[in-house]
From TrEMBL:
Biological process terms in GO annotation: mRNA 3'-end processing
GO molecular function: RNA binding; zinc ion binding
Organism: Trichomonascus ciferrii
Lineage: Eukaryota, Fungi, Dikarya, Ascomycota, Saccharomycotina
Region Disordered, annotated ranges: 175-214
Entry keyword set: Metal-binding, mRNA processing, Nucleus, Repeat, RNA-binding, Zinc, Zinc-finger
CC per GO annotation: nucleus
Family listed: Belongs to the CPSF4/YTH1 family.
Positions of C3H1-type zinc fingers: 28-55, 57-84, 85-113, 114-141, 143-165
Protein name, per record: mRNA 3'-end-processing protein
């Protein structure tokens, strides 16, 4: 059974001009890139015969003006013109105040402000001496039962907590004694030479005194 491939190059439709002007179909894919559009603006707009390439990095968020029906750039807009919940822009009111007056009907993303704070490396190791005063995020994790028994095969890739108890002991010792104690040398009092008792004249016995008188 043979497959028939009809020749469609010579076929023309009434909506060809619309597709060419609005969506730039039926144009040579090897045509040069428009330098004016790459610089920021092309005066010819959709009538330009060159290629208008939109950067991929900017085509990730839905256009907030398009959501309201107020975007004037049309297909030349650098943002998405489609309703995609995963690519909606962030709600500025929720990011500043922590709540939204239009919730749950708000069209924008509600991102938790705490998720933007970097995690605390000391807390991930097991202990942070700053406690609630720490400016970084303390992510609580359930301790890994395998690690507590002695070994976890997942290692650093484990999603549970691997506390290091020696870090806790060192931090507590530093907090208790911020400066190492210096040995205190006590000066021993100088011993004064003991005074020798003065020799008292020996009293002569009575027989000796009588002999001396004779």
């Amino acid at each position: 059974m043979s497959v028939i491939h009809p020749d469609t190059d010579n076929l023309h439709f009434t909506f060809d001009n619309f597709l060419r002007n609005e969506f730039r179909y039926y144009m040579d894919p090897n045509r040069p890139i428009c330098r004016y559009f790459a610089a920021g603006h092309c005066p010819k707009g959709k009538a330009c015969p060159d290629k208008h390439v939109i950067p991929n990095y900017a085509n990730k968020i839905v256009c907030k003006h398009w959501l309201r029906g107020l975007c004037k750039k049309g297909d030349a807009c650098e943002f998405l013109h489609e309703y995609n919940l995963r690519k909606m822009p962030e709600c500025l009111f929720y990011s500043k105040n922590g709540f939204c007056t239009q919730s749950p009907d708000c069209l924008y993303l509600h991102i938790d402000p705490m998720s933007k704070i970097a995690p605390c490396p000391n807390y991930e190791k097991g202990f942070c001496k700053l406690g609630p005063k720490c400016t970084k995020r303390h992510i609580r994790k359930v301790m890994c039962p395998k690690y507590l028994t002695g070994f976890c095969p997942d290692g650093p890739k484990c999603g549970m907590g691997h506390p290091k108890f020696f870090a806790i002991n060192d931090a507590m010792r530093i907090a208790r004694d911020p400066q190492p104690s210096k040995p205190q040398f006590q000066q021993q009092p100088q011993q004064q030479p003991q005074s020798q008792p003065q020799s008292q004249p020996q009293q002569q016995s009575e027989p000796q005194q009588q002999q001396a008188q004779e």
